[in-house]
Write a structure and sequence with these properties.
By secondary structure, the chain is mostly beta strands. It has 6 helices and 24 strands. It has helices at 4-10, 16-21, 26-40, 173-178, 340-346, 359-366, and strands spanning 54-55, 64-66, 69-84, 87-94, 103-106, 110-117, 126-128, 152-158, 163-168, 183-188, 199-208, 227-230, 241-244, 248-255, 261-265, 270-275, 278-279, 286-288, 290-293, 298-304, 308-314, 381-384, 387-391, 395-401. It is globular and about 80 Å long. The N and C termini lie far apart (86 Å). Bound molecules: copper (II) ion (CU).
């Protein structure tokens, strides 16, 4: 069988290390070293001062320099994917992963991108947001013939811009994107960044209809998704974003899902500095704490890192959750104590839950008490230093530490809070203190009720 590994080996692209030397003549190698220099020149006063992009839970596609052209090779194919331990699926992606690898280049580069189709149906690749000849735009049927199963097409163009971009199929899009075909296309500026960036992260937002107990995402679903992911992973399987105190961090976020996502970062006010329309002029930078990433959009946010563990998440609260039954009755306030045993005779293992809220779900998961349907993640998971974090979708932690070495991307563990700067328990008595509380307004026409509210200074009763 002609595996992907063999294919890449045949192309001389077996690994990132092979990218630099493998398959090149000495002359080509020297030229490659010159042209590939942007990645290496950081900190040595070269023209290019950018750091390579870190794709969360992802990787960057190696390239070869052939006669001054950066050559990349994407392979559209089925991939075995794990959203988080306990949930696997047959997805579609590129070069063995979903999302596909990040393509990274520099403004002015000439790129040639081979696309081999190893799917059972035709495909094409659209380079989202790039200036290019219309015939390279990748819309199957409109700007090119579809790439049939087994065929390889070459796209070639010069990068006339810089910014955060994406690639995805423009053929049977509903299916191919729902199954995970997408990737990032990052173009660094030829000249220096307006503000030197120390860490440059990127990821794509996506949603998946992986129904409980199944192994194939359902492309027909339009709203009721089961999984909400940063770069194909759900919390707690999403990489942390790590930085050293005082470093300038950029996070590039692209959205190829079916919903808009208000992405919220704790701890700082960030600047929105650009998107798939390129880097914005400084006068257009906005200060925000939540930025909506619309469907088909990218946004770049930048901030100076402040020490701590800071949540970065979608603010649509269902999008930070794992799979949930969409047709379940609302249990809030329902006393199920009398019926739990009866239900259990029909549904073994049924646990009455939710009367006082859903938090106990997170505790049960942490205790290993809940085993849902096969291949299905719990609605809430993730354990922090103080207990269950009760998330499960679009959520990760920005971990900023004083003592991190520059360029160290390793997970530093949980933040050690100075004791005087940590919220403390001061009482276990629900009647503690004398908080101001509002009395319920009397229903119109009803006699004024006496409430059990205690007399509050400054509040007059029954007048
Ligand atoms: Cu969202």
């Amino acid at each position: 069988m002609f595996t992907r590994r063999k294919l890449l080996a045949a192309m001389g692209m077996g690994s990132a290390a092979a990218m630099a030397t493998g398959g090149l003549t000495r002359r080509e190698g020297a030229r490659a070293a010159e042209t590939m220099d942007p990645m290496a020149a950081h900190g040595h006063g070269g023209t290019h001062s950018h750091v390579p992009v870190r794709t969360l839970n992802g990787w960057t596609l190696p390239h070869r320099m052939i006669d001054g052209v950066k050559e990349f090779h994407l392979v559209a194919e089925e991939v075995d994917h794990e959203f988080a331990p306990g949930s696997k699926a047959k997805c579609w992606g590129y070069n063995g992963s979903t999302p596909g690898p990040t393509i990274e280049a520099v403004e002015g580069d000439r790129v040639r991108i081979y696309v081999t189709n190893r799917l059972g149906e035709h495909t094409s690749v659209h380079w989202h947001g790039l200036y290019l000849p219309s015939g390279m735009d990748g819309v199957g049927g409109l700007s090119q013939p579809h790439i049939k199963p087994g065929e390889t097409y070459a796209y070639e163009f010069t990068l006339r811009q810089h910014g955060s971009h994406m690639y995805h199929p423009h053929a049977d899009e509903m299916t191919q994107m729902a199954l995970g075909m997408m990737g990032l296309f990052i173009i660094h500026p030829r000249s220096a960044e307006p503000e030197r960036i120390d860490r440059d992260y990127a990821f794509l937002l996506h949603n998946w209809a992986l129904h409980p107990g199944t192994y194939r995402p359902d492309p027909a679903v339009m709203q009721e998704f089961d999984l909400w992911t940063f770069n194909g992973k759900t919390f707690p399987a999403i990489d942390s974003i790590v930085a050293r105190t005082g470093e300038r961090v950029r996070i590039r976020i692209g959205n190829l899902s079916m919903w808009n996502h208000p992405i919220h970062l704790h701890g700082v006010q960030f600047r929105v500095t650009g998107g798939d329309g390129g880097r914005w002029p400084r006068s257009s930078w906005r200060t925000e704490v939540t930025e909506i990433i619309g469907v088909g959009q990218m946004r770049d946010i930048e901030f100076v890192a402040i020490p701590g563990d800071w949540a970065l998440h979608c603010h649509m609260s269902h999008h930070t959750m794992g799979p949930m039954g969409h047709q379940l009755p609302n249990p809030i306030g329902v006393d199920q104590s009398g019926v739990e045993k009866e239900i259990r005779s029909i549904l073994p293992g049924y646990m009455a839950m939710g009367k006082d809220g859903m938090a106990e779900h997170g505790e049960h998961v942490a205790m290993g008490m809940l085993s849902g349907p096969e291949n299905t993640l719990p609605m809430m998971s993730g354990k922090g230093p103080f207990g269950p974090i009760e998330m499960g979708g679009m959520f990760t932690v920005v971990k900023v530490r004083d003592d991190l070495a520059p360029g160290d991307y390793g997970d530093p563990g949980w933040y050690r809070h100075p004791k005087s700067k940590l919220a403390q328990r001061v009482s276990g008595d629900p009647n503690f203190g004398s908080p101001a509380r509002r009395r319920p307004a009397p229903a119109s026409g009803a006699p004024v009720e006496h409430t059990e509210m205690p007399d509050m200074p400054g509040m007059k009763h029954g007048e």
